Amino acid sequence: MLQNICVVLVNVSHPGNIGSVARAMKNMGLTRLVLVEPRAFPHNEANIRASGANDILEKAKIVATLENALVSCNLVFGTSARHRRISWPLLGLRQCGTKVVEEAASGTQIALVFGREDSGLTNKELQQCHYHVHIPSNPKFSSLNLGAAVQVVSCEVRIAWLIAQDQSSKLEKNEVASTKNSELATVDELERFYKHLEQTLVAIKFLKPEKPRYLMARLRCLYGRSSVSRTEINILRGILTETQKVVDSASRKRKD
Ligand code: SAH
């Protein structure tokens, strides 16, 4: 699903930043990098900063314009360090992560677009994006280094992805749990257990029939909220049977 997401860098000046971006992407499980007219690429500085994410650099696509980069994308998120004059659908970072993951999961091709180190994205480029995303940085010092900005956004995507995976595995677990629920003791089995329990409690003189108080009701309440399975009922009844045997043999001995 993360394969449906690409990171687009527009006119990067410093090749080292391309390396940092590749590293940030690989750390977060993203693999597709698209470079719009980079000033210098391939470049040794990029390889050095990628430190282990060179595969992403090798596979990076180089295109001449942002239009070319976005040609097969369905949904485009443009990032900006400043609030621009143009009013555009603006997503919070968290919302962006969730939306990217939701859409990517259903096969939508996503582009996360990042701008130039010195001037960011132009208004025209920002208007090619469906949503704008701003990292909530210090308003008096809002511009992150390009690699850091990609790191933050892709980390947010990863968190949303992990949450989505966790939810689907919980759903699966619930399915397993509901299969287990079918092994829950039936009402009838529970009733027979309560009867057995009551008899045993009387036999060991814990329950006095003339003065029962609410003991059985309380015990019903206890077992009732424990989702007792058939196997557990069998164990409990086994304990009661053994207890009764001990009580019976003790009373026989007393009679002898
Ligand atoms: N001086 C430029 C900032 C360029 S930073 C400007 O004022 O726009 C390079 C790129 O990093 C930006 O184009 C954007 O894609 C990303 N970036 C940096 N800080 C960001 C922030 N706070 N929120 C979103 N993107 C940010």
Order of helices and strands: EHEHHEHEEHEHEHHHH
CA-CA gap between termini: 78 Å
The shape, in one word, is: rod-shaped
Low-confidence stretches: none
* Name given to the CATH homologous superfamily of the largest domain: SPOUT methyltransferase, trefoil knot domain
State the CATH topology of the largest domain: Alpha/beta knot
What's the average pLDDT?
92
SSE-based structural type: alpha/beta
Estimate what percentage of residues fall within beta strands: 5-15%
Helix content: 40-55%
Q: Which class of the largest domain in CATH terms?
A: Alpha Beta
Number of strands: 7
Bound ligands, each once: S-adenosyl-L-homocysteine
| Strand numbers in spatial order across the main sheet | 3-2-1-6-4-7-5
Sheet with the most strands, sense and barrel status: 7 strands, parallel
- What is the name of the CATH architecture of the largest domain? 3-Layer(aba) Sandwich
Q: Kindly provide the radius of gyration, computed on alpha-carbon positions and rounded to a whole number of angstroms.
A: 33 Å
Into how many domains do the coordinates divide? 2
Number of helices: 10
Subunit structure: Homodimer.
Organism: Candidatus Pseudomonas adelgestsugas
Pfam families: SpoU_methylase (PF00588)
InterPro entries: Alpha/beta_knot_MTases, RNA_MeTrfase_TrmJ/LasT, SpoU_MeTrfase, tRNA_m1G_MTases_N
